[in-house]
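Q: Got a minute? One more chain.
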Amino acid sequence: MRWNDAVAVAVAAVAASAITSAACYQTPAPAPPPAAMPENRAHARIAADPLGFLPIDAEVVAHLDAQQLRRSDVWQRFEPMILAKVGPSLAQFHALCGFDPLIAVRRVSIGLKDVGGKPNAVIVVRGIERGALMGCIDRALTKQPDAARVDRGIVTIPGATGQPPTVLGFADASTLVLMTGLGASVEALRAAFGAGAPLRSSPAFTELHATLETRRPIWFVINGSSKLLDQAAGFGLKPRAVFGSVELSTGLLVDVRMRLETVDQAQQVAAMAQGQLGAVQGFVSKLEVTAADADVVLALGMSPEQVETLTSLLAGSLGSP
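A: Always. Here it is, folded:
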């Protein structure tokens, strides 16, 4: 599963449309009332925690506040380009299921771990109503019974030949938890529900998490063991972690830290990076690289006009609609 696959699953469009598209509905039936499932109060409490249900051994943890993102000036600039790419799929999903996942989703949390070169992911999507999605899946299965299996409210969608399944279920009325990868199963998802928020018990993670601006729409933590940081070895670096946040309210503000082994190493890397900033500074309003203890700190800011320029460049590289 690639990063773009993870994002697609996070908004539940891939998981549900894999079933609903196979059913070939022409007109959707009204969504039935939510399935009669007992509400687990412990699960509902954990569902309110941004770290809820994410595995303690996740190498990458990220959080997106979709509501903040949709209100931002940056989203208004990028939305037409995004919709040009995914709009037809979203329209099909809306016709089949009766709601737009991009509008319904409030927040998304992701925990990823590489296992044998293949990512395992737990994705928590807040905002999609259980009755709407499960009703859509139930209707689709009447047309294509083999598209998925439902076991007491947990759905298993088989992967393509040789690929692991996607398993999904609701922790409460509007918190969807998806699991995909080699360890994905009904039992594993139920275990994740029962585990609560195990990342809260990790001293290493909580130390990094405490430094983040978690009120921003995007924040992330990448553990030093993640293969995403393997390229740093080419520069003689072995980061202990990379973590940061993104603000989008006016323009773009990015703060990222790379934690190294020693203070001296951080100072050396920051000094080297400062000498390479000249070619980029004309495209941004702020670009600083400094050292703070053992962290190399990157601060980048772009004005709305600079974001507009970036949007145009990206649109050109992706191709016009």
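A: The mean pLDDT is 84.
Q: Perfect, thanks.
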